[in-house]
User: Fold these one by one.
Assistant:
Number 1:
Amino acid sequence: GVHPPRDYNAATDFIDRHGREGHGGRTAIIDADGPVSYDELTELVNRAGNALLALGLRQESRVAMIMHDSRRFPAVFWGAIKAGIIPIPINTLLRTSDYRHILTDCRARVLVVSEPLLDEVRPALAEQPFLDTVIVDGQPGRDEQSLADLLAAAGSDLEPAPTTADDVAFWLYSSGSTGTPKGVLHLHRHLPATAECYGRGVLGIEPEDVIFSAAKLFFAYGLGNGMTFPFAIGATAVYLPGRPAPDAVMAVLREHQPTIFGGVPTLYAAILADDANNRDSASPVLRRCISAGEALPKEVGERWQARFGAEVLDGVGSTEMLHIFLSNRPGRVCYGTSGEPVPGYSVRLVDESDHEVGQEEIGELLVNGPSACTGYWNRRDKSLDTFQGHWTRTGDKYYRDAEGCYHYCGRTDDMFKVSGQWVSPFEVESALIAHDQVLEAAVVPHDEGDNLLKPRAFVVLKNGCTASDDLAAELQGFVKARIATVKYPRWIDFLDELPKTATGKIQRFKLRA
Ligand code: 3SK
């Protein structure tokens, strides 16, 4: 539950418990090599924990992971946790310079890396002051070790390390849309907290469910969808090793028929853009979908539900809070909003002086809940700014409507004033996306040299649509007809794609530049 006992190792709860309770034969994972039962997963986890101990890692030392989604990801992650070692899953889409920074910053002694990522990662390994062992999931190079060999040589029984619920269990690096990645420290108790509050309380995941998260396991959102929630109750997770391109995702939906699917808004929109994709060509048993990463445009949610017959629960979470803390609820989805606080979490909306704002007034969202990280690694000032007592500042602007639903208005630093009125880029983008030729849009402030800011839009059109001045003028008129005239984009640029973080957030700062 949300309050585990003081002596608590999350791996015994999420991994070992299934065999202990007699359902170790259930399928835990289906990956590219086939199904893995909970008993098999437990053995893999034990072998991975023993392999790390055999390399000299001890309780509280750290292991970095740059791994694709497969059974070996949870093996290393939970094996480390069971042994009291702290795993640090890292985004597999980063560049060499990011890996150089993160590996030095986190001081892991061991790195486990998937072979296809070595070209990007290897140059970052030279002169790493703390790293002494590189393990490759695949074919190792000289001075590297093979994960398969280490697992085969390791023992299959492992005593859990004597951790407490308040011990650090793992770190994640916040991707952020700006700045250098920061290490985010999470405790053993945070895993059952998200499983209980969101997994059970909102998603209603059941042991019979098959869940497929297009969001990868290194991302807090994918970590919850693809490990914490299914493993909390003995359900099945489907892993896709490569990039979650629309075709690859559709192929998984067809082949594995998941009942629950998790994606990001761009992916939902891209799948919908192809008329051939519909419930018959996907999973007819799909009963619930989750969207996070950024706000889901109203039209995308509505069209998905009409086409695939399953509601999309749009929610908002963060790496700092580990998973979703504001969400729509099954049976009462209000598309275009982030819904209400997840049970167990509370939120406040405050102005620049930290005073609570009224209903329908825009304020910064603060959240308080049982999975808030303990802080950023070695970033005291940033931690003091973000974590204030029980409250975590999200940097997101929201307002709450009369029904208690929260409406996203943009990042605190993305909002701007036009003719004295606050403009939320998100509101203008939502208006543009409602046009049937627009796939995606990003809006930023632009100053044409008169020191006055006005909205400028970058638009990606759907396949088969052609950019033109006439279409730009049509889009301007379309927006004016829907939202306050002052907010319409004075300039429209057509792009092939928008700059985004690996986790799907639009990098507006790149468009502002
Ligand atoms: O971006 C989000 O909405 C999110 C959701 C769950 C976990 C982590 C993140 C960043």
Note: Residues 322 and 441 are 28 Å apart (CA to CA).
Number 2:
Amino acid sequence: MSQANTIYLKDYQEPDYLIPKTQLTVEIFDDCARVSSRLSIKKNHSGERRELKLNGENLSFISVKYVGEESIAYDLCDKYLTIVPKSDDFILEIVNEIDPKNNKALEGLYQSGDIYCTQNEPEGFRKICYYLDRSDVMSSFTTRIEADKVDFPRLLSNGNLIDSGEMTGDRHYAVWEDPFPKPCYLFALVAGDLAKVDDNFTTKSGREIALEIFVDHGNEDRCEHALESLKKSMKWDEDRFDLEYDLDLYMIVAVDAFNMGAMENKGLNIFNSTCALANPDTATDANFFRIESIIAHEYFHNWTGNRVTCRDWFQLTLKEGLTVFRDQEFSADLNSRAVCRIEDVRALRDSQFVEDAGPNAHPIKPASYMEINNFYTPTVYEKGAEVIRMIHTMIGESNFQLGMKKYFDLFDGKAVTTEDFVHSMEVASGRDFKQFKRWYSQSGTPTVQVTSKFDEGADTFTLTFTQKLKNKSDQVYHLPVKLGLLDSNGEELELIMQGKSFGTETVLELHTDSQSFVFEGLKEKPVPSLFRAFSAPIILEMETKREDLAFLLSYDSDSFNRYEAGQRLAKLEIESLCEALRDNKVPQVDHLVLDAFSKLLRSANADEAFKALAFAVPSLVSITEQQKEFSPVIAQKAREILSHALAEANEDYLAEHFNRYNAKENYVFNAENMGLRSFKNMCLHYLLKLPKADYISLAQDQYDTANNLTDRFAALQALLQTQSTARDEALEHFYDLWKDDAIVINKWFAAQAGAPVGSSDQLIKKLENVEAFDIQNPNKVRCLYGAFAANLPQFHKEDGSGYHLIADKIIELNSFNPQIAAGLSKAFKKFGALKGQQKDFMKKALEKIIAVDDLSPDVYEIVSKTLK
Ligand code: ARG
Ligand code: ZN
């Protein structure tokens, strides 16, 4: 049993010392790396000189001295190197060694395959050398790397290459200089034998930027998409945000062992290879899309993250929420805005809403943490982006852009807070966001209850909004409600309030716990369409008749709300089916529901990409989150009953349209083709709900003949719903084909671990023993154990076997990669919702983890909060 310290935002203090200049020499040897640093240090306040405490963890200390002097008094412990400076301005020279080869936590400098790379955000730099490892200490870095020429032909760091050359004994060196001062979390170093694929981009002011991607030899043909995405990102940031790239070189390195998706190090991004590499044979549409958005995300950080950075890690959403908002807007501008919004909200609800309702709920700006690595969460990222989006919705695009200009005018080159950002928006828009800032400090998803009243004689329609807050101490939020009203023909009505027209769509703002709005001049009772485009991250509670939901599914002009109406309708139906199952009655699917969805499928005013989303039944997570009693097994059954009924009712249509779109054209990645493929594969998926050999052959045929992974993998997933020899054959074939490919084979693990049929703790124990598995690789852990833990009926199996399997893996991972172990520990988030024996089983599993001797603060924080 271990313990961890809690760190509080309210305790923040400015650094006592700054480090204006950092010169590093990193010598890579066979059995270690030697780091010599030369730090120019300056006192940062006018008071008395205090001691200087440099962070340093897992370092072999060798020496410390003032430049030009022999020795110095110091104090060394496992977390700090402390000295008492003799002046206000001095240069320290420190030498230490590290062991990148045995660094399995993948923080600091570590080995991935045969190459050396770094991950320093948030606090990895202290595992490279002694330093003030905090984001408000910004320094100009010069980095010299020395290594063997044959093993490490590429030596990379941030900024510009200013010198390189040969040394004696088969060694060589490179010197990099980054002209932009930065916190050490943005420092990067890469050394290895990598292939380079390059391109270039001319900025709007006419500067030529060299773009370079470094990958393992053999992967050169998987770089084109990342390069195209990068150029699109650079252009988009110029067009929409008027932001231009600032160095002459932009490098991206893809590595297989990486804890997260990617990292925005200045001028030298490091990517998890799954988030960068793609070609039609090795990546699906979803992968292509995700790569485009992550490349964009890291690129956009250059301004929102690097040029303006965070004062401390409590401010993480300052750069992450804003940058996610920017990458979401980029994807929406380049693809279908409607589809992007639906998918973003779906992801938000399935991960962030669940987090906000669980034991590890926290505000987007947490007030405290034990381990900051645990706060790279859907809340800080995705809810953070929703908070930015609300500001954008309330002040509009042009004021928002003025706010961004203000932000850079005031804070370029600085480490700042979320208040600084909101201040910029206030100044630019003339608005007061004092109350709005509660979104930063309160956790939990608020509920907005809406009631309506139509007054026939007066021709008025009144909407009343009431906020229901999550925590006792919460105060009401300031939030935007984008809305419209529809007449009985599905036409948009003019919105008139207090004699003034607001067109057919407007944004209302809520400030108080209960607020009413009266719409005038209405001859008939309208159907309201509220929170269009999901204008606020809330749970809407409103009694709506099934007929009205079906009506909105057909007619709402807001695509998101059209989708939403269908989902709400399907959820009502699934709820009824769950009840029937609980009462041992024969479940019957409501005809109104089947008709509404059948009509949508045939609708002329919706494209295929939209239909593929809107015709899909709600996710299991979104269903179980609304259950009074958490029971994924029943929810899954009900979901299948509805899916089956939808397939049966539309069998001919689905079969015909599957065939119509099953053209064998060359794979092209664009929004339109992606939409067509997802529609076609949705048809296939439904057809395999029906027990017919013909449909299995259809899937088998697509699997065998597909000319791209999107179709091939969709066929495999369709087959995974069945128990058939075709399923087994396809799985075997896929393994033989891709077992040596680190990226593609992970999909094989994830698909089986997450399958509705055939997954089990026994299967996981079989899969972890296949040659292609490796528990030290985070992607594989996520794809096998992560996918299993997200497979709710399996993970929550009655006998508790799922809990114990995952607990054992957490304990194993804790000993070498705490961050990944902690990530997996979040699987136990439904603890509070469980009852009886099920709860006892989970409790035992959690207690087994908490009893581990050298439990990391990462895992301790998650598990202790879960048990509370
Ligand atoms: N800043 C990176 C990104 O959002 C993520 C780095 C996360 N690192 C971590 N150790 N959790 O692009
Ligand atoms: Zn980010």
Note: Residues 297, 301, 320, 323 surround zinc ion (ligand 2) (CB under 6 Å).
